[in-house]
Amino acid sequence: MALVFPGAAYGGGAPVGAVTRLAFAVITTLFFAWGLITSLIDPLVGAVKGVFTLSNLQAQLVASAFFAAYFFVSFPAAAVVSRVGSIRSILIALGAMAAGCVTMLVAANLAIYPLVLLGLFTLASGITVLQVAANPLAAALGDPKRSHFRLTLSQTFNSFGTFIGPIVGAHLFLTGIEVKPGASVDPAARAQALAGIDTAYLWLCGMIALLALFFFFGRRVIAAAAPPASGTGGIAAVFHSQWALLGAAAIFLYVGAEVAIGTQMALFLNDDSVWGRSDAAFGVPLLGLTMGSDGVPGVSLQEAAKAVAFYWGGAMVGRAIGSVLLARASATKLLAAATAIAAAMCVYVAGVGGVSAGFVALAIGLFNSIMFPVIFTLTLERSSASSEATAGLMCTAIVGGAILPLAVGSLADVAGYAAAMLVPAACYLALCGFAFAAGRAQPRQPA
Questions:
Q1: SS3 at position 15
Q2: Which sequence ranges are marked TM in the entry (predicted)?
Q3: Whole-structure pTM value
Q4: Range list of β-strands (E), 342-447
Q5: CA separation (Å) from 254 to 133, 369, 375?
Q6: Are the CB atoms for 149 and 374 separated by under 8 Å?
Q7: Distance between CA atoms of 170 and 405, rounded to whole angstroms?
Q8: C-alpha distances in angstroms, 338 versus 208, 335, 365?
């Protein structure tokens, strides 16, 4: 496929032609893959909670094991990318992801929860290398003035993967699984859930192998289109850049909020105070069709997990719209508006609750949509460190997805799922402040 995007030149003024468009298309396929893999975490949280009889906090270790990899691996990944280049780094990343899938297969067959956590950490380590290499590359393949647009467009395909993941995961992982107080999981449902995990990661392993082949044969196209490394000073220089540090803090808060909402969403919707005793969601044409009513009044955990696809689907739609808006409007103003609205929606869910809160919670994804790519590119533009080091620091900050869900899970255990939404509300308000600060600062370098 050939994706056409605005802008006539990159770097030293070479025209954007077929080679650059094809290179951008190849990179974008990787965004789809890691989006699909990451969103499987949401139904997996509900599955392990039932299969291994865990508390909310214990189940959230699934998200923590996955996103902790960003903390431990991002700076080594930045060093690898600086030393061997983006193309070889991406191939290394795909190899690590395949190893993580194999570990998940063993974990599902032996039914060992700590091994599940190890497999997810390994898988996420590969994705971390992939992000450190691919995010700046997608931003750089074209006119620097359109970097916000390009990264948002790539993230749209990432969101398409995150839309599919919860539906597939709910179907494979959650048949017969219930986690409400007093509910128990029968051995047949437990065995089916473990078999579903095995099936999912077997197919993912095959998909990753195909992507590695696809990327290997497309490596020359990317090498021909990619601009050279953007800066000097090494990894240490990033800690002396105010904007690199601010951008990392913003990514920490954004990913933490997004993941905390996503991993709790199925449990939240399944709660009796939201949709657990209501059939209202089945009256919404596309949503009800996707959830697929089992004929029992109320929304089961499996049905709720399928609805989570619309949280991530909102991000996909928002990024598609954002790609158009960012070609014409101020990135900082759009970010400020999106974060303020997301904060207000979280407060509504916490303060009002009820059936309507379920619909509002799902719609938060629409406003999450542009946050990551815009924060990323605004930071690259303003950082005084190299793009490799800055990207490494921001990917390290994705560890927010490991830490904040634990806080939300703990609060949910004490005060309920709705009240726990106050944590992401505070994160979005801080991000609104970041947007205003970025609007007052002049870019130092093109993203």
A1: strand
A2: 22-41, 61-81, 90-112, 118-141, 153-174, 200-222, 243-269, 309-327, 334-351, 357-378, 390-408, 414-438
A3: 0.76
A4: none
A5: 20, 11, 9
A6: no
A7: 20
A8: 33, 5, 10
Tokens, residue 16: 């954007």
DSSP 186: -
Q: At what angle do helices 187-217 and 147-173 cross, to 10 degrees?
A: 150
Q: How far apart are CA 388 and CA 232, in angstroms?
A: 9
- The confidence score (pLDDT) of residue 313 equals 87
Lowest mean pLDDT among 36-40, 88-92, 217-221, 431-435: 217-221
Please report, as a single letter, which amino acid is at residue 254. Y
| Model confidence pLDDT, tens digit, residues 346-364 | 999 999 989 999 999 999 9
The crossing angle, in degrees rounded to 10, of helices 354-368 and 242-270 is: 150
- Comparing C-alpha atoms, which of 1, 87, 32 is closest to residue 207? 32
Query: Rounded to the nearest 10 degrees, what angle do helices 242-270 and 400-415 cross at?
Result: 40
- Is-contact 95 212, C-beta < 8 A? yes
Could you give the CA distance from residue 317 to residue 159 in angstroms, rounded to a whole number?
A: 8
Can you tell me the mean pLDDT for 295-299?
Answer: 89
Phi-psi domain of 416 (left: phi exceeds 0; alpha: psi -120 through 50; beta: other): left
Locate tokens 């609750």: which residue? Answer: 353
Instruction: Identify the residue with better confidence: 177 or 217.
Output: 217
Q: What is the pLDDT of residue 99?
A: 95
Q: Tell me the longest C-alpha to C-alpha distance in the chain.
A: 66
Domain residue ranges of the chain, discontinuous segments joined by +? 12-440
What 3-state class would DSSP assign to 370?
coil
* Token pair of 250 as six digits: 């913003």
Using CA atoms, how far apart are residues 375 and 381, in angstroms rounded to an integer?
A: 10
Tokens of 273: 């105070």
| CATH tag, 12-440 | 1.20.1250.20
- Residues 375 and 254: beta-carbon distance below 8 Å: yes
> 3-class SS at 10?
strand
- What b/e string do you get for 20-48 counting C-beta neighbours within 10 Å, with b at 16 or more? bbbbbbbbbbbbbbbbbbbbbbbbbbbbb
Three-class DSSP category at 14: strand
The upper half-sphere exposure of residue 104, i.e. CA atoms within 13 Å in the direction of its Cβ, equals 32
| CB-based contacts of 406-409 (< 8 A; 24+ apart in sequence) | 406/57, 406/60, 406/61, 406/64, 407/260, 408/60, 408/260, 408/261, 408/264, 409/55, 409/56, 409/57, 409/59, 409/60, 409/260, 409/264
Q: Say if strands 14-15 and 9-10 run parallel, antiparallel, or are unpaired.
A: antiparallel
First to last CA, the chain: 25
H or E segment and range at residue 335? helix 331-351
Looking at residue 275, the DSSP 8-state letter turns out to be: T
pLDDT of 139 over the 70 cut = no
Q: How many CA atoms lie within 13 A of 246 on its CB side?
A: 22
